[in-house]
Each structure stands twice: as C-alpha cells, then as structure tokens.
Amino acid sequence: MKRQFSLAHLTVLGCTPAEMTYIAARAGYDFVSLRPIYMGLPDEPNYALAENKEMLRQTKKALDYTGIKLHDIELARIYDGLDPKKYLPAMEVAAELGACCVLSSIWTSERNFAIERYAELCDLAKPFGMTVDLEFVTWANVTNLKDAMDVLRSANRENCGIMIDTLHFNRSRVALEELDQVPREWFHFAHLCDAPQEIPTTKEDLIHTGRDERLYVGEGGIDIAAILKRMPQIPYSIELPHLANVKELGCAEHAWRCLQTAKDYLDAHLGA
C-alpha cells in the first residue's frame, strides 16, 4: 500500500490554511493537518476557521483546487475547567472539510476529569464520523503511552485513538515493546520528525526542541524505523517545526524537504 503523508500546520505555522494547502500540493503531500482551534500561545496566528468565514472560503477553494484532503485538526486540549463543547464549531468545520480525526492532549492532573472530558470529546466527534486521537506530550500531564492507554481504556469509546509522535515517544523514553500492547484499531495516524540523540533535561529545552527545532527524518538520533515497524501502516503527518530552516529556506522549500527526507528514509529502512 502506498504511504500517505500529511503536512502538519506546526511545520509551517506562519502560513494560512489555504497557503499551506497549496504548498502541500506542490510538494506532493496527500493531506494537510490544520490547526483551526486557537490556543492563544505567544506569537500563534489565529486560524479559527469557524470564526473567519473568508479564511474558511479560501481554505475550501484551496482544497477543491488542489485535490488535497484534510486529514485531522488540532488541538482539542483537555485542561482544568474545560467544557468540550467549546470545540464543537471547529469539529463542525472539520467535518465539512472532510477531516477524519481530532487530535487531543491532556493538560490537567485530575485523572477522572481528564477521562470524563476525553470521553465527552469522543461523543461529540462521533456524529461527524471522526475519531479523537490522544497524543502523549513529554511536558504535559499525560506524558507516556501507558498513561494514554489508561485514559482510552477508561473512557471506553468506539472512536478513540492513540497518536504517536516520534519526538515524544523518544523524549518520554517509551519502550518499543509497549507498542505491541496497543490495539491495532487505535492507530489512525502518526507524527513524524527527528531530533538530536541527547534528550534535554529541562522542560524549557524539551519545549524548545518540540516547537522550534525538530530535525528532518533521518538526520537525528531517533530510531524512527523501529517505532513504525511496530505499528500498522497509517498516514504520517510530518510535524517538523524548525524556525531557522523556515527563515532561511522559506515555507515551501522546508515543507518539500520534510516530505522528501521522510520518503527517502522510509524507503531505505522499511522498503519502497
């Protein structure tokens, strides 16, 4: 089966959804992974499509013109005091644009609250035919595969999922054998990137690598092939922010290099 790739918005966050769709098409991606849930982070552009009808119109036009599909949206964070219905407008737009997955992560220490809100997210997404895929993030509250699986088992929803990011898998020191315990139907897509072999020891340095300086696949110290060999073949969303490379090369060239290096690496290590 032909491998499929998506361009994650964080890779070219300075581009609007329409702009990144055209870039993805020219580079040869199959999908885009959009960020229409505004999180209010420092210097983060607001791409809340449900609130910006002109941006939504332009995004639809780009998807229709290029034939690129929307794969997933992010980020439906679970945090203290969250009402998951807050994400309904973004889900509605995502469904309208053809998305199949909603990415989530957990930023509260209250386990029962997190499980209840994750289950509610799944219930909200189900009528749209979308899964809710939980990502463990090294500097969040659910930081490893074991705890993420505990949330999914406790929530017990048909449309739940686990999203493996190769950076967080490596930084959280997850054992490869743990992937063998994940039900195959929980895998819907994965995030690909590489990073230096040495794992940072501070939260600040972990965040810096994750948001500003990930490496092209095959250029760092993560055994990406070993991770992917223990998972079914699923779409690979390349989430590879590198601010210096974008500044030097431009978004289009950076996105192309992200895809080409990933394809070359996977062909060499997993077979063409």
Automatic annotation (TrEMBL):
SUPFAM superfamilies in the record: Xylose isomerase-like
Protein name (record): AP endonuclease
PROSITE patterns recorded: PROKAR_LIPOPROTEIN
One example GO MF annotation: endonuclease activity
Keyword Nuclease carried by entry: yes
Gene3D superfamilies in alphabetical order: Divalent-metal-dependent TIM barrel enzymes
InterPro entries: IolE/XylAMocC-like, Xyl_isomerase-like_sf, Xyl_isomerase-like_TIM-brl
Organism field: Formimonas warabiya
Occurrences of domain Xylose isomerase-like TIM barrel (ranges): 23-237
The organism's taxonomic lineage, starting at the top: Bacteria, Bacillati, Bacillota, Clostridia, Eubacteriales
Swiss-Prot/TrEMBL keywords: Endonuclease, Hydrolase, Nuclease
Record's keyword annotation contains Hydrolase: yes
